[in-house]
């Protein structure tokens, strides 16, 4: 008999609905697991055991009345600390918001509560989602459950580590340049970035508004589909939200991929990719072929420029989005004799180095005389990336690549080399620039015994197809390896 | 050297939509500080803007009324700068793709018509209000500052003119005409004293037809009078400097209401780089042809057309049509008076005279006039029917305006009806002739001008109620026939 913390979201919801277990038991099992592992992992900035307990109690009471339960009733959830929850401290991993308690909840928070999930904690992250390791968090690095000397990836490293370590079967992250998929890959879990606009951003503390997207983490594809259904949908509070109806992602999940045209992104097979990662990726291609997939290489030349474009667009938007943290209305305020001095000191003391670096980069990129050369040109590259994808999808249904060029790296290894750190996002960034969906699923362990992720990309609103392909692959390969915890 | 002023105006107008530009908060003026706010207009982390459709339509209507083209695609941009009364430290505004482009506004000063080009009409959000506590009320010397965000996020339209204005009087006329158009459209309260309309002026001097001179911007002129005073001062200041051979600085100046002078606010070197870029939280606005033509056909009668119609229908002079047609309320009052039976020209004379004076003295708008159009028409009718004479009627009007009582009631109560009874007038004339023997003699000796004095004496004798025409007739008869 498995421990409660080992169960999938699907199993937990089913057993609670059957009356085999209570939601309170589930909440307590996960609260205990978090309490036991947190000193080592540090997946959460703010654990919320009381909220989970109260929500569980309400689920049990509802079940007692015989009322039907929502699809994720009693399922614990780790929420990245970049999404506002009314009355619960929300820091975005930054000292500047250390004491910030939002007066409102984000749209997904309401949807997740309606779906019956239990909030076990606000998960750790790189400050304002800027980073690929959680080393930029003002609340300490999160350790990778596979090897405590290594990073979990980022920026949604806390959510990924929590799901990998059994602190919650599902989690919510945000993905601006790979911040869900890369940590999913490094922690050996499933992570998905939906189509831009598929999930409301209302209540998500913005990093780069035109790229940010909220998405699910889980330990299997079915749970991922369930969680995506809980958060996807049009929101009148987000003007960029997509009005198209949301399909039932579980429908046709097991329809297989026979005859599916799969393109291997040639640009992802460079020598910079770790051999063990390349090896597992090759294995994955074989599995996909054996399932009836028609696999062929495809070149997307603009991939080479996507990273540079991203590191102009994202900092430009962040320089404006983060201007509001000035000590006037909320968050930290430094003492100073004048208003502008107070603004400057607050920001100097409140922001970490990486945030400052990107705010300065972005301010420069938008400055008079430089706009066309930097921000304007980056937007043109973005158009080229979209065109490359469009052309590729004339011939292919989905595209595949490794999620990250490497497995989890050592804490501190790249902390002083921002450029090496930025390369982590090489394969994930193009989907953000195109606003298209992509999923990362575990595809075995590399020579170093660490998990490798397979990235599957698709055209706009192809979430059902991506989940179907991922499910077929997962079913053929068997359950993903779990960390030794 | 002969210099001419080159002036362009940027007028900011708060729209009177029920809710703010990007959230559901009410826009009503006043209220306890920070009570009309929400996560969106406070710029709380994670909040997002949703555009107010009504505000977008109002902006398009302003553009259409000014003869602009509504752009099929326009964009919101972020204008980035730090200021405590701006919750996000950027303002959602428009930059190179505004809602409306290229219109015109005709202004007329002393019979000369000028067409002022309209560069653009765009939509943005207003900021909050800072209160600096300290000796001077300025941020640099404040002990501490308070911010009220009730106004933050109210939709604000900016109307930018071409530099086609040549005098302070033209600028005033332009602002008055713009205000009157906005009022006719019903899109703004246009209360300058409450800050719902304010203007910035760009001004330079040049030799007529020559190159543009150095441009100075005067910020935040909050009344038509201030526009005139500030520009009159600034034109003189620049002219004197140029005549003295001094170079002018490109700078932003502030108009000090109490001293009537403009002062340097910041120089060009301190100008901001706003780092405009397209607002990623909002979609582009697509103005379809159907949408635009529906708005166009919903435009009400505009001031210029209204004045022409009033002049034609009622035989009014240009000045009268301007005065009567100055606002929707004023036109309504005029038309109400005419509908109640008054002759248009009489109504116009009364409105320009007694009504205008009374409103001015009371400091209220025409919508708060305590004499109704029907009552004014009644009074005009009583004058025509010789029930009261004109001077008495003016007194009645004033009393009615002050008390709110009906003019007819006042006339009856105060016994102010005109005396046309020949017997009563004969008695009064006899008394005047008897007690002014010298003057009577002088008149009879051919000194015509004494007649007016004697008429005045009769009016006095009758407490001003006598029918003046009848007094004239009877008195002349008595004096010339030697009767009485
Ligand atoms: Zn609001």
Short structural description:
Chain A has 485 residues and is an alpha/beta fold.
Task: Describe this structure as you would to a colleague.
With 485 residues, chain A is of the alpha/beta class. Chain A has one domain (1-485): Amidase signature (AS) enzymes. Chain A is 39% helix and 13% strand. Chain A contains 15 helices and 11 strands. Chain A has helices at residues 9-18, 23-41, 49-64, 107-114, 157-164, 181-187, 221-231, 275-290, 303-321, 339-350, 353-366, 372-395, 418-422, 429-434, 463-477; strands at 44-47, 76-80, 118-123, 170-175, 190-193, 213-218, 261-265, 294-298, 398-402, 438-445, 451-457. Chain A has an 11-stranded mixed sheet, with helices on both faces. In chain A, β2 (76-80), α4 and β3 (118-123) form a beta-alpha-beta unit. The longest helix of chain A has 24 residues, at 372-395. In chain B, the strands form 4 sheets. A 9-stranded mixed sheet of chain B has the order 2-6-7-10-1-11-12-13-14. A 3-stranded antiparallel sheet of chain B has the order 5-4-15, with no helix packed on it. Chain B has a two-stranded antiparallel ribbon with strand order 3-16. Helix content of chain B is 40%, strand content 20%. Chain B folds into 3 domains: 4-294, no CATH class; 303-395, no CATH class; 422-481, Orthogonal Bundle (Arc Repressor Mutant, subunit A), CATH 1.10.10.410. In chain B, α3 links the parallel β12 and β13 (251-256). With 484 residues, chain B is α+β, with helices and mostly antiparallel strands. Chain B has helices spanning 53-65, 168-185, 224-243, 289-297, 303-314, 318-324, 328-339, 344-362, 373-384, 390-403, 407-414, 422-435, 437-444, 450-461, 468-481; strands at residues 4-14, 69-70, 73-74, 77-80, 90-93, 100-109, 112-125, 129-133, 144-148, 155-161, 197-206, 216-221, 251-256, 261-267, 277-278, 285-286. The model of chain B has no long low-confidence stretch (mean pLDDT 91). Classes of the chains: A alpha/beta (485), B alpha+beta (484). Chain A binds chain B through residues 83-84, 90, 92, 97, 100, 102-104, 106, 201-206, 208-210, 236-240, 316-317, 319-320, 323-326, 328-330, 338-340, 343, 363, 366-368, 371, 375, and chain B through 39, 42-51, 78, 80, 82, 84, 87-90, 139-140, 145, 147, 273, 275-277, 280-283. The complex binds zinc ion (ZN). Zinc ion (ZN) binds next to loops of chain B.
